[in-house]
Amino acid sequence: MEYKEENIDPNAPIRLNRYLANAGVCSRRDADKYIEAGVVQVNGQVVTELGTKVLRSDEVKFHDQVVKIEKKVYVLLNKPKGYVTTSEDPQNRKTVMDLVRDACPERIYPVGRLDQNTTGVLLLTNDGDMASKLTHPKFLKKKIYHVFTDKNVTAADIRQIAEGITLEDGEIHADGIEYASPTDKKQVGIEIHSGKNRIVRRIFESLGYHVIKLDRVYFAGLTKKGLRRGDWRFLTEKEVQMLRMGAYE
Question: Partner of 11 at 20 to 30 A CA spacing, among 30, 57, 58, 71?
Answer without folding.
Answer: 30
